[in-house]
């Protein structure tokens, strides 16, 4: 049983490490779009690793395959990207500010311009031309 404890410890530590990195990223990253990646990527992998450890433990303890953790993992991996996508679309719609040196700022401006009506885009373009 010693090798099982090593495998379980590996998955628990890996999950804790991913969740710690995701939490630090959520607290330290400067704008919304960067902060969005921390909980949806790193923390999802952390919870997935903890669920794998739980699945191995309860499958070996009860001598039957544990399906609960598999269902939770599938639900987590389906809902996390969808919720991140919806939050990003809402932020684009609300024109959430971006740090100027963020990579992809031009993409953000183009996406914001696409979400506006044609009249609003013309007004914004004229304002930008006047500022230059």
List the keywords:
132 residues, mainly alpha
Topology:
Elements: H1 2-28, H2 32-62, H3 68-93, H4 105-115, H5 118-131
Structure description:
The protein is mostly helical. It has a domain at 2-77. 83% of the residues lie in helices and 0% in strands. It is built from five helices and no strands. It is elongated and about 60 Å long. The model is unreliable at 117-123 (pLDDT under 50).
The poorly predicted ranges are 117-123
* Discrete helix count: 5
Report the principal-axis shape: elongated
Query: Measured on Cα atoms, how large is the radius of gyration?
Result: 21 Å
Order of SSEs: HHHHH
The averaged pLDDT comes out at 80
| Percentage of residues assigned to helices | over 70%
Quaternary state reads single chain
Strand content: under 5%
SS elements, strand count: 0
Overall structural class, as computed from helix and strand content, comes to mainly alpha
Main sheet? Answer: none
- The first-to-last residue Cα distance is 70 Å
């Amino acid at each position: 049983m010693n090798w099982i404890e090593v495998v379980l410890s590996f998955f628990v530590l890996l999950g804790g490490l991913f969740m710690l990195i995701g939490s630090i990223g959520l607290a330290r990253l400067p704008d919304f779009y960067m902060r969005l990646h921390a909980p949806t990527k790193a923390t999802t992998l952390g919870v997935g690793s903890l669920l794998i450890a739980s699945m191995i433990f309860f499958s070996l303890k009860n001598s039957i395959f544990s399906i609960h953790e598999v269902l939770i993992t599938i639900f987590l991996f389906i809902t996390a990207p969808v919720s991140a996508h919806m939050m990003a679309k809402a932020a684009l719609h609300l024109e959430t500010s971006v740090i100027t040196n963020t990579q992809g700022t031009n993409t953000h401006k183009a996406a914001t311009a696409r979400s506006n009506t044609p009249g609003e885009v013309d007004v914004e373009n004229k304002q930008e031309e006047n500022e230059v």
